[in-house]
Amino acid sequence: MSNNFAISFEQLEELIGLVNQVHGFSFNGYTRASLKRRITRIMQLYNLSFFDLKALLINKQDFFEEFLTEITVNVTEMFRDPHFFSAVRKKVFPYLASYQRIKIWNAGCSSGEELYSFAIMLEEEDLYSRSFLYGTDINSKVLDFAKKGIYDLRKMKQNSENYQQAGASSSLSDYYTAVYDAASIQHRLKQNTLFSVHNLVSDGVFNEFQLISCRNVLIYFNAELQRKVIRLFYDSLCPLGFLCLGSKETLRGDELASRFRVVDQFENIYQKIA
Amino acid sequence: MLNLPLHTAAKVRGAGIMVIGASAGGFNLIFDLVLSLPATFPVPVIVIIHRNRRYQSAIEELLDQKAAVRVKMAAEKDTLNPGCVYFAPPDYHLLIEPDGTLSLDYSEPVWYCRPSIDVTFESASDVYARNAIGILLSGANEDGAEGLAYIENNHGLVIAQDPVDAEVKTMPQAAINKCRRCMVLSNEHLFQFVNQVALLHVK
After folding, report:
1. Which InterPro entries does this chain map to (chain A) (predicted)?
2. Mean pLDDT over residues A95-123, rounded?
């Protein structure tokens, strides 16, 4: 990134304030270094000065959705971190099998790859028919992609490799239909899913879940917001429900840590016990 | 013996952070440089190497046992401390927050790399400006060169391994091409340089 588009941390604060005032959207709890990079990227992408960017945010209503899409990180894969998924299959699914209804919340689901990975595993363990998966994100544009469940066929190679490493029991291609250069997730895997806008910063509990997966989201939050979101997850889990975090996100040091049991310390899987 | 020009010595005295990037052909040199650091090394050190996320590695543990400084894999919210070397974890970009803590980022790879050296160089420069030292060693792509130029533009100190000494020249050569005032150091001088940082630095 060239220095030309770089903004200062002071300008970043100005922008955070502006977005909050004009759009009622708070990025206050977000880590600054990453946010600054994303904004610099937007300015580069659209060839905007800092002044242009502010003017667009104030005057052009539909620019904000684009801004939101670019500012949040929407990089994801199916079965990303295969070891995580095999750990869930081995250590968590046997518990889930004891529930009549299994409700799963994938918070920060982006374009839905992780949610469909869960759906596939549930299907393979004969749990899908009594499961319901909620995918939420702050960004309605990526949720549209998630609902469609249509992905670039080229990405399916990496996704298949991940799937195989995660302890596959068949072939990933059993779960999608290739159409030209796209892979369309099979209809039955979309049936028990719901994608909806939810902001971890400002929205609250909306259901009770047996499993919540929120991976590579907390890394973008400051310590205070992390505490708040972990409290929200705690309140949204049923007794003995599971919380899955990203490979670099832990509950260590959190005030609620003692209320969880560590199910897998490498994959950061926790169970609510108190 | 490496003789630092006056303005360079001044930058070394005021340094707040040292960031080292390396890829193909640079790992052994990085390890030896880390092992050469005294326990009281006056600034925090960040190391970015390109490594495959698929394979678990124990580099940090091994170095931590052998080195005088502390060596750890960087975790989000870690506070940067002198006398400690932080390795960027595989598959995440490593960023530095204005309050001197570390954060991780899972955005797009840069130059097909995550962690990217460019990303951490730029982030260090954003926070430390003229007090950042960037060092780029052997590697097979151009990751790091632009970040080093970014540090230079913010008046930090930039160093490239002499391509003659580098096992793979692409990366340091790209840095030399992109930076106007890049110090080009032989392997021997690189060791002397970090030694000088330890001696000259004003705490």
Report:
1. Bact_Chemotaxis_MeTrfase, CheR_C, CheR_MeTrfase, CheR_N, SAM-dependent_MTases_sf
2. 97
Integer angstrom CA distances of residue B43 from A111, A153, B107: 41, 47, 28
Tell me, what CATH number does A206's domain have? 3.40.50.150
- Domain membership flag for residue A76: no
Closest residue to B98, CB basis, from A2, A32, A246:
A32
> Are A216 and A93 members of one domain?
yes
Let me know whether A241 and A124 are in one domain. yes
- Mean pLDDT, chain B, rounded, equals 94
Question: What are the b/e assignments for A89-126, b being 16+ CB within 10 Å?
Answer: beebbebbeebeebbbbbbbbbbbbbbbbbbbbbbbee
A45 is in which domain, residue-wise? 3-71
Helix axes B117-128, B145-153, angle to 10 degrees: 10
CA-closest candidate to residue A108, choices A63, A62, A142: A142
- For residue A198, is it within any domain? yes
CATH class held by domain B6-51+60-200: alpha beta
* Domain residue spans of chain B: 6-51+60-200
pLDDT surpasses 70 at A3: no
| A69 closest CA partner among A16, A111, A36 | A111
Calpha distance A144→A85 (Å, rounded) = 25
The answer for A 239-268 residues in CB contact with B (under 8 A) is 246-249
Structure confidence at residue B51 (pLDDT): 86
Of A3, A9, A73, the CB nearest to B106: A73
| Measured distance CA(A129)–CA(B37) in Å, rounded | 59
Catalytic residue among B23, B116, B123, B138: B23
Tokens of A206: 């909306």
